[in-house]
Every structure is written in C-alpha cells, then in structure tokens.
TrEMBL record:
This is glucose-6-phosphate 1-epimerase. Residues 435-452 have a biased composition (Polar residues). GO terms for molecular function: carbohydrate binding; glucose-6-phosphate 1-epimerase activity. Gene3D superfamilies: 2.70.98.10. It comes from the Eukaryota. One of its GO terms (cellular component) is SAGA-type complex. Transmembrane segments: none annotated. The keyword Isomerase applies. Its EC number is 5.1.3.15. Pfam families: Aldose_epim (PF01263), SAGA-Tad1 (PF12767). Belongs to the glucose-6-phosphate 1-epimerase family.
Amino acid sequence: MHSAEERERQRLRDRDKEKPFVELCKGLNGIDKVILREVRGCSAQVYLYGGQVTSWKNEYGEELLFVSSKAVFKPPKAIRGGIPICFPQFGSQGSLEQHGFARNRLWSIDPDPPPFPINNPNKAFVDLILKHSEEDMKIWPHRYEFRLRITLGPGGDLMLTSRIRNTNTDGKSFAFTFAYHTYLAVSDISEVRVEGLETLDYLDNMKDKERFTEQGDAITFESEVDKVYLSTPTKIAILDHERKRTFVLRKDGLPDAVVWNPWDKKAKAMPDFGDDEYKHMLCVEAACVEKPIILKPGEEWRGRQEISAVPSSYCSGQLDPQKAHLRINLAELKAQLAKRLGPDRSKLYFYYLNKLLSLKLSKVEFNKFCLRVIGRENVKLHNKLIHSILENACKANVPPLASTQDENGFEITSGGYEQNGEVLLSSPLGSRSGISVGSDGDFSSRQPSSENGDLDSCKIHKPVQHHQVLSKETNNEGES
C-alpha cells in the first residue's frame, strides 16, 4: 500500500514538473517578486517594484540579462539592470525624472487582466498593473491604467506586452514616450555586434541628439554609445561571438530602438554600476522616443517586445536563425556598382576584384588600383559586396562552378564570381587553404570602411579551395 501511495505521489510530482511554474515570493529587502519557470528549466524573475524583470535564464541556468553587482534593490532607487520600464518619459527630455516614474513605483498583481491570446498552454506568465496615484498626478496630471504581461514561452523566449489606457475624466489627451530598457548580458562588449540597424538614421544623445545616418554594415563597440535609431525593423539581432549566442529581439508598436553602453568613464561615475561592468552588458531597447504616443480618453496603446536567445555560428548572416544557411544574392550589389561605374570602369573593377580573391593581387595593390577606379563615393557599396562575398563563402555548402561571365560578358574563372551572384573562390594552395579571419577566429571581426572612406579588403590572406572546405574549417574553429 505504501509503495502504491509513493508511486502516486511521484506521478503527481512528475506531472507538475511538466507544467509551467509561477510563484510569488520575497526577494531582496523583502520586496515581492514573481518567479516564472517553464518545463525545460528556463526561468525569469519579476520584481513588483518597477514591474521589472531582473533575471532571465536559459535551460542551462545561464543568466541572459545583466544586473549590476552594485544595483540597489530599495525604493525609491531604480534597479540597475534587467528590463526597466521607461514611462511616461524616456531619458531626460521632459519635466519628469530620468526615464519617468514607472520603474520607481510598486506595481500590483492584476486581479482582472484583459484577455490575451494564448496559442500555447505551456506558457508561464504574470499580469501586473500600475495606476495613477495622487502623488504622481502632482508631477504628471493624468489618469491612466498600465497593464503589463510578462510571459516565459515554452522555448524560453521572454515576452513583455504593455497596454496603456487613458482614463482621464476631464476629456484631455496625454502624450508619452516609452522604452523597454533591456540590459543584455554579453561576454565582452568588443566581441558583440548588432545587425538590423545599418543604413538607418539615428539621434546621437552624445551630440545633442543630432541626426546622423548609420554607415557601418553592423554596429560594433569601441567606445561609449548612446543612440536612438529611428523607423527600425521589427527584428534586430545582437550577436555575442565569444559565447556563440544570438539574441533576437522582435517588437511591435515600438518604431525606435535605443543602443547604449556607458563605457569606462561613465561607468565609473555611476554609483550603482561597477567600474568594469560595461564590458559585460549592452542595452538594446524597443522604444518609442522620436514621436510621442498620444492617447485620447478611452484610447489604449499596445507595445510588445520578445527576446529569444539562440546558438549562433561565427557567420550569422540572416536575422532569422532558421534561415541562416541562405546565401546573399550578390546580383543586385553588382548591378548597382556596374550602373554607377559604367561598362569600362566596372569591367576593370571586377578584374581587380577577381585578382584579389584569387591571390594574384595583394591587398595594398588592390586598394591602390581599385580606389582610382571606383572613387571614394562608391567605397561603401564595394565594402558591402566584399562582406557579402565572405558571408556567402561561410554559409555555402556546395562547390563552385568552374567558370562563368559577368554581366558585361567578361570571363571570370573559378577564382572570381558567377553571374547569379554566388561566390566562386578557388585556391592554388590546395584543399587546406582557407580565409584568415583575424586573431579572434571570427569573420565578423572585419571592420567596415574607416571614417575617411578607406577600402575594406576584408583581411583576405588565403582564398578558399571550395565552399565545403571553408564551412568545415570555420565550424571546427568555432566549436568548444
């Protein structure tokens, strides 16, 4: 009998392990927090103070969010790290304190949350609510309801969905700016790049919010960065090469994206931030900053951010990890260059490029000849083509064709490229040849053109015998 009862208890325990887990408990300094756990072991912690996610771990128990070792978990100080909620003001533009007051208020468990679509029952989630107080109305005279659902999906994805409603009874509209101030944990900021924001306009907060256009093929970090990118795509990728991890951030209702790292001087000036902790964090934030959201009484705004952490190879390519094997079609890039250069100059340019890729021309010689041919005004497009060629070589899994012609009828051998835009790289050095990718063993370490418009020959020291060789050697170097 005892054995049967014990088996039944064990069966119930095993069954419970297969369900998402939600628990309300006490955190630091007795502040209430909610623990979310999904069936594979991924977890998240949410403090009711600030309605703030302070931990997000994968199934291996690895922390994916950064929280400073000097963070203060004591009101009224904001918690340094995790995902602070910036509302109703982002930054210091306005009459309110930095980033508004929502991150400094005690939220409540929502007793009557509105219905949310749930397409998978194995989600752990908590519904929080923040309403206006008499104290808040002295500094921001508006009535509102802010509902926040924090969801941990069955694959460990972390989603924050906000609903903000104007409940003013005086007929007045209100405007606000907003951000999910997400602190991501990274191995080394110098080994991180952000993709999806290239060629976009941004406001540089370090230069009085002056407007610029992003010039790099990807965003890398060598100094303090504080930028608001405008009209951004719904998907952004943050690649941590040392940890071979890619964060994919998806967003709705939030047109802007903030990228911030304080670097050394500002880190030392912040009392709740370690002097060297800037090396291990990066803020990439779904936001609405440039154009405030305006709500009339009774209107509701919704904004969502979802983050997933997936393994990444050294050559990420696509923002969608499931499509990372797809190669870039180079035909459009080549056509743009041919149109800008004209038949004679484009033929000469591709001739020099072919000689570079087949090791018949040094980088120094290539830069000298090529710059005269294309001019500095076309350097950026040239660099994009070179980068795309290497991305294709990294992702390719079929051998190249023997020969082809370019769009001008110029014969290109297997040391060059083919008409449909696929890379053709061959080597006189035999099957052991490969591309030297820098001291960190990372294709992504190559830099775009410098500020003075120098050519980027992408550190090519050895060409590739064929695509399989490159793919195999790169994967071996990337494995731990």
